[in-house]
Amino acid sequence: MNVEPGLLATIPRTVTVRAAALAAALVTVAAGLGVRAAAGGDVAKYAGDALYTVLIHTLVVLLAPRVRPLTAAGVALAFSWAVELAQLTGVPADLARHSTVARLVLGSTFNAPDLLWYAVGAALAWAVHRGLRSGPARARS
Questions:
Q1: Which residues 6+ apart lie within 8 Å of 18 measured at CB?
Q2: Strand, coil or helix: 28
Protein backbone atom coordinates (compact mmCIF):
# COMPACT_ATOMS: atom_id res chain seq x y z
CA MET A 1 0.00 0.00 0.00
CA ASN A 2 1.47 3.33 -1.05
CA VAL A 3 0.64 6.28 1.14
CA GLU A 4 1.22 9.80 -0.02
CA PRO A 5 4.06 11.23 2.15
CA GLY A 6 2.18 14.38 3.12
CA LEU A 7 -0.97 12.46 4.05
CA LEU A 8 0.38 11.18 7.36
CA ALA A 9 1.41 14.69 8.34
CA THR A 10 -2.24 15.80 8.08
CA ILE A 11 -3.41 13.36 10.75
CA PRO A 12 -3.63 15.16 14.11
CA ARG A 13 -1.01 14.00 16.60
CA THR A 14 -3.67 13.19 19.22
CA VAL A 15 -5.29 10.76 16.78
CA THR A 16 -2.03 8.92 16.11
CA VAL A 17 -1.17 8.85 19.83
CA ARG A 18 -4.61 7.45 20.70
CA ALA A 19 -4.34 4.83 17.96
CA ALA A 20 -0.92 3.80 19.25
CA ALA A 21 -2.23 3.68 22.84
CA LEU A 22 -5.15 1.50 21.78
CA ALA A 23 -2.80 -0.84 19.93
CA ALA A 24 -0.50 -0.93 22.96
CA ALA A 25 -3.45 -1.77 25.22
CA LEU A 26 -4.44 -4.67 22.97
CA VAL A 27 -0.84 -5.93 22.84
CA THR A 28 -0.62 -5.65 26.63
CA VAL A 29 -3.78 -7.71 27.14
CA ALA A 30 -2.51 -10.29 24.64
CA ALA A 31 0.84 -10.42 26.46
CA GLY A 32 -0.95 -10.96 29.75
CA LEU A 33 -3.01 -13.79 28.33
CA GLY A 34 0.09 -15.26 26.67
CA VAL A 35 2.11 -15.20 29.88
CA ARG A 36 -0.79 -16.77 31.73
CA ALA A 37 -1.04 -19.56 29.12
CA ALA A 38 2.70 -20.19 28.82
CA ALA A 39 3.83 -19.82 32.42
CA GLY A 40 2.38 -20.45 35.81
CA GLY A 41 2.95 -19.62 39.42
CA ASP A 42 4.90 -16.56 40.42
CA VAL A 43 6.12 -15.78 36.88
CA ALA A 44 2.58 -15.40 35.55
CA LYS A 45 1.36 -13.60 38.66
CA TYR A 46 4.07 -10.99 38.82
CA ALA A 47 4.24 -10.49 35.06
CA GLY A 48 0.49 -9.96 35.24
CA ASP A 49 0.95 -7.35 37.97
CA ALA A 50 3.49 -5.43 35.88
CA LEU A 51 1.31 -5.69 32.77
CA TYR A 52 -1.73 -4.47 34.77
CA THR A 53 0.10 -1.21 35.41
CA VAL A 54 1.29 -1.03 31.79
CA LEU A 55 -2.35 -1.39 30.71
CA ILE A 56 -3.45 1.39 33.06
CA HIS A 57 -0.66 3.56 31.60
CA THR A 58 -1.89 2.93 28.05
CA LEU A 59 -5.46 3.77 29.09
CA VAL A 60 -4.26 7.04 30.64
CA VAL A 61 -2.55 7.91 27.33
CA LEU A 62 -5.68 6.90 25.42
CA LEU A 63 -7.76 9.32 27.52
CA ALA A 64 -5.16 12.10 27.64
CA PRO A 65 -2.91 11.78 24.57
CA ARG A 66 -0.80 14.81 25.48
CA VAL A 67 0.10 13.46 28.91
CA ARG A 68 3.80 13.34 29.73
CA PRO A 69 5.31 9.87 30.19
CA LEU A 70 6.22 10.46 33.84
CA THR A 71 2.73 11.73 34.65
CA ALA A 72 1.06 8.76 32.94
CA ALA A 73 3.37 6.33 34.74
CA GLY A 74 2.69 8.06 38.06
CA VAL A 75 -1.07 7.90 37.58
CA ALA A 76 -0.88 4.23 36.57
CA LEU A 77 1.29 3.40 39.57
CA ALA A 78 -0.91 5.34 41.99
CA PHE A 79 -4.02 3.63 40.65
CA SER A 80 -2.42 0.18 40.86
CA TRP A 81 -1.21 0.79 44.40
CA ALA A 82 -4.62 2.17 45.43
CA VAL A 83 -6.34 -0.96 44.12
CA GLU A 84 -3.84 -3.19 45.93
CA LEU A 85 -4.16 -1.27 49.19
CA ALA A 86 -7.95 -1.33 48.90
CA GLN A 87 -7.67 -5.11 49.10
CA LEU A 88 -6.75 -4.66 52.77
CA THR A 89 -10.35 -3.54 53.38
CA GLY A 90 -11.98 -6.69 52.05
CA VAL A 91 -14.29 -4.69 49.77
CA PRO A 92 -12.63 -5.90 46.53
CA ALA A 93 -12.86 -9.51 47.74
CA ASP A 94 -16.57 -9.08 48.39
CA LEU A 95 -17.11 -7.51 44.97
CA ALA A 96 -14.98 -10.22 43.33
CA ARG A 97 -17.30 -12.91 44.70
CA HIS A 98 -20.17 -11.33 42.77
CA SER A 99 -18.46 -10.19 39.58
CA THR A 100 -15.76 -11.60 37.33
CA VAL A 101 -15.00 -8.10 36.06
CA ALA A 102 -14.51 -6.85 39.63
CA ARG A 103 -12.20 -9.79 40.32
CA LEU A 104 -10.12 -9.04 37.22
CA VAL A 105 -9.91 -5.28 37.85
CA LEU A 106 -9.76 -5.14 41.66
CA GLY A 107 -8.31 -8.50 42.66
CA SER A 108 -9.23 -9.89 46.04
CA THR A 109 -6.22 -10.48 48.29
CA PHE A 110 -3.49 -8.05 49.34
CA ASN A 111 0.03 -9.21 48.47
CA ALA A 112 2.87 -6.81 49.36
CA PRO A 113 5.23 -7.94 46.53
CA ASP A 114 2.59 -6.82 44.04
CA LEU A 115 3.46 -3.22 44.95
CA LEU A 116 7.00 -3.75 43.64
CA TRP A 117 5.82 -5.37 40.40
CA TYR A 118 3.40 -2.50 39.77
CA ALA A 119 6.41 -0.17 40.02
CA VAL A 120 8.29 -2.36 37.53
CA GLY A 121 5.36 -2.08 35.12
CA ALA A 122 5.17 1.69 35.57
CA ALA A 123 8.90 2.02 34.90
CA LEU A 124 8.64 -0.12 31.78
CA ALA A 125 5.65 1.84 30.47
CA TRP A 126 7.42 5.14 31.22
CA ALA A 127 10.56 4.03 29.36
CA VAL A 128 8.64 2.91 26.27
CA HIS A 129 6.41 6.00 26.27
CA ARG A 130 9.40 8.32 26.71
CA GLY A 131 11.29 6.56 23.93
CA LEU A 132 8.35 6.87 21.56
CA ARG A 133 7.87 10.56 22.33
CA SER A 134 11.49 11.36 21.62
CA GLY A 135 11.62 9.29 18.42
CA PRO A 136 11.09 10.36 14.80
CA ALA A 137 7.37 11.00 15.31
CA ARG A 138 8.24 13.72 17.82
CA ALA A 139 10.20 15.62 15.19
CA ARG A 140 7.02 16.05 13.11
CA SER A 141 5.07 17.81 15.84
A1: 61, 62, 65
A2: helix
